[in-house]
Amino acid sequence: MKRWKKIALGTVGAAAVAGFAAKDYVLLHLPGWLSPHVAPFHEIAWRPGPATPALPPEKRPPNIVLIVADDLGFNDISLNGGGVARGLLKTPNIDAIGRQGVIFAQAYAGNATCAPSRAALLTGRYPTRFGFEFTPTDTRFARTVASFPSNWRYKTILDKAAVDNDPPPDAKGIPTSERTIADVLRAGGYHNVHLGKWHLGGEPGMRPEQRGFDESLGFIIGAQMFLPQNDRNVVNSKQDFDPIDKYLWANLPFSVQYNGGERFHPDRYMTDYLTHQAVRAIDANRNRPFFLYLAYNAPHTPLQALKSDYDALSAIPDHRTRVYAAMIRALDRGVGQVMQALKERGLDDNTLIIFTSDNGGAHYIGLPEINRPYRGWKATFFEGGIRVPLLMRWPARIAAGTRVNGTVSHFDIFATAAGAAGVKPPADRVIDGIDLAPYVDARRAPMPRRTLFWKSGAYQAVRDGDAKLQILDIPRRSLLYDLGGDPTERRDIAGGNPAEVQRLTALIRAHDAQQARPSWAALFRSPVAIDRPLGTPPRAGEAYSYWSN
Asked: In angstroms, rounded to a whole number, what is the distance separating the alpha carbons of residues 75 and 390?
């Protein structure tokens, strides 16, 4: 072939490659480009309560502050075995909630991913009872995850039919027939405030200001930037091995909105902004009973830390770990500032503070010890995916240093908050949670035996007493563990206990018969290695499961 022909073919080939690359770039960034305009920062005015209280704080129903971290691993707080970077990060303020109140040693998330777990937490019900089985995602996100190159033999499986028929992301939420804890508390005279992440639907009727919250300041979608990535005060950590990370950096805005109004930029690092607004909301409502749902997006990706927090953790050598730890440092600082605000306003004694995480830490950030000592991650039903911190503090009712070893769940927060407020949960539907007050007060009633279920597509799990069965999707097999003697799920005993496998499988089937069909389909099934994080080399014969979403 003549030289000019070779040059011409090479030029055409390069152009074709560039064209495909440009197309992929456009498709990846399109959701961000099409997102609504974000206005400059402006201050919002919280609706003030009465200038003087009708009753002193100790005579009123308790204030209730529910703080939810996002993807916080079990080992990310120093109360649970050391904390990030083997104890180089301490979380004294989060720890104080448990030490000055009650630690629930065996607390479980409603699900192993963000949105279904939050739906369970706010309704007191299995999200599968009302079709909220999968986390709402965008079809472009699903395609990004499915098309991401991987050297692992197990690949993401895209359901093209589901993608083609998928409803808009905003239509995926808690149906309007459900009642939230905010609905119930409003009936008891509470002023309800939502701050931060929602992720439970954005269509009319599904938004927080339409689900019992009098005021809402935050974001409807599942994640948000903490600062613009080129801000001089931010330190970023990008995980080039993670398709989720790739999608988030390309598309996430840095914005909030008040009661569905115009989106605008916060005036500081997102965690600090939400904390600042929480203190302002407490001040506005200091003379009336209030419910504050403070849903931080930390330490969910994208990994972004304040430079000042990053610099304060110079003893942590690994950059990614240091950024992640710095994000949790800001989270812990925020919890401390909220607690201090309550104390300064004389509200501390009669405020029930609840702290938890929506699920376990994520494998896709590439850090190996965030759920230690448990196996698994977010998007698995191993203990690392569903075991979460659950701490409560209420000096007027809960003695410092209380510890409950029985099995509890996110569902229980609904019934516990309702009981504390003196209001009754809805009587026209099944409430799966229980009021935990009898098990933490001076009487200390014995915790009942609990049976808990989790489901995402064909992947299911049940814990009944100390027996836990997981039924995997791919590979299709059952795993049985005795959590009493093997709390970290190291020894599968299914082979030697067929009758127990059969019994627990029957429990799952009976539970399934009471649940609704999913309101939207899973768009893909993705493999997750159980014992290593993403970004590390595959291992021969390693355990894995597939997650539907």
From this structure: 13
